[in-house]
Amino acid sequence: MHGLLGLPVDAIDFKALLAKMDEAAAKRRPFLISTPNVNFLIKSHSSDSFRSSILLSDLCLVDGMPLIWIAKLLRVPIRERVAGSDLFGRLKARTGSQLRVFLLGGTGDLVERVGQKLNAQQCGLECVGVLNPGFGSVEELSSPDIIAQINESGADLLAVFLNAEKAQAWLLLNHDRLTVPIRAQFGATINFEAGTIQRAPPLLRSTGFEWLWRIKEEPYLWRRYWADGKALLQILLSCVLPLAIAAWVTRRQVQFAICPSEHDDGVKLELSGSATADAVEALLPYVQRAIEDRNRLIVDLGAVEYADGRFFGVLVEAKKQLARRGVSLTITGVSPRLRRLFRLNRFEFLLSDR
Questions:
Q1: Does the structure show a pLDDT above 50 at 85?
Q2: 82 closest CA partner among 188, 205, 243
Q3: Between 3.30.230.10, 3.30.750.24, 3.40.50.2300, 3.90.1170.10, what CATH number should domain 257-353 receive?
Q4: Is the pLDDT of residue 178 over 70?
């Protein structure tokens, strides 16, 4: 996992992703997938609850060419766009294995039509249930009857077709009530699958101009793209550009070192040097041990001179895994210079448990 402007992102390709989904389905364990795009990024900076739904995901797939470009600029090794629509298509195209899917959301009878289409094709997805719950609040869409209908379907995959904010809030609220192992928000995929909206040609998708096609198909979206575009430009100027300059200036890497010690009810790790991707792998065994032993983890950054996206990704994953076990991650000794890096990378929220 890596950190990208406040979001956790996983450098994973479709082959590895499908293998992880098959494993989760076989073990029937909760496996939440999020697909951050520019809209996700903007919303995560203004909504703590929306950000939390992404941070708690088991996998975060980069869906959006602007994020791919930003990742390359910040040396985050995301090479492949893994869009929700592409994932749905890959699952359909599989012949060696099949996942049972429950379709939730959409408008009108779209989920019924897509469910029938899937079963008529004898593809890699077998539809075992559909439900359009309407336009109620997240709480109204979380009634015992709705949850029971989903759980009783025996599905392996719950495909949610609500707007991003509502879908993420719904998945977070019902995380412990759902028994369907794999959960993901697929957004406009339902429209593409039903044929009510045509998806952009591959060339436009690969060059980052899919938004122009979406506006052609759904003119009302121009307001969202206009607002997101302005917010993205501000982020590029205020965060991405300074980070890119800092990465270029800090080309001389200071050796990374870890000094572990026992501390009250937990473990303290004193770090020093440059916490970059080629060095922080050495940190993982200490973090994993703290997670397994359910120990509070204190990370002292007093002697850290520089940190990159991989290091922020490690901190985010550690915080999530420790929280699931009822213990905390505490970060101390943050210098003004390092605090600025946390702020520019949009991970200053990690310092709130100090």
A1: yes
A2: 205
A3: 3.30.750.24
A4: yes
Q: Which of helix, strand or coil describes residue 161?
A: strand
CA 40/CA 34 separation, integer angstroms: 10
Secondary structure element (H or E) that encloses residue 32, with its range: strand 31-34
Task: Classify 274 as helix, strand or coil.
Answer: strand
Residue with tokens 């990742």: 71
Of 29, 112, 83, 63, whose CA–CA distance to 91 is shortest? Answer: 83
Q: At what angle do helices 222-235 and 38-46 cross, to 10 degrees?
A: 70
Task: Report the alpha-carbon distance of residue 186 to residue 162 in Å, rounded.
Answer: 8
**Does 132 have pLDDT greater than 70?**
yes
Most confident of 98-102, 193-197, 201-205: 98-102
Q: What percent of the chain has pLDDT over 90?
A: 55
Sorted by sequence, the CB contacts under 8 Å of residue 195 that are 6+ apart come out as none
- Dihedral sign of CA atoms 310, 312, 315, 317 in order: negative
The closest of 156, 141, 18, 146 to 82, measured between CA atoms, is 18
Q: Which sequence spans correspond to the domains of the chain?
A: 2-227, 257-353
At 346, list the tokens: 């949009």
Euclidean distance between CA atoms 226 and 231, whole angstroms: 9
For 98, 162, 269, the CA distances from 59, given in Å and listed in that order, are 21, 19, 26
pLDDT class of 325 with cuts at 50, 70, 90: confident
CA dist 313 and 310 (Å) reads: 5
pLDDT per position as a tens digit, 147-163: 999 999 999 999 999 88
Q: Please give the model's pTM, rounded to 2 decimal places.
A: 0.88
Burial class (CB in 10 A: 0-12, 13-18, 19+), 292: exposed
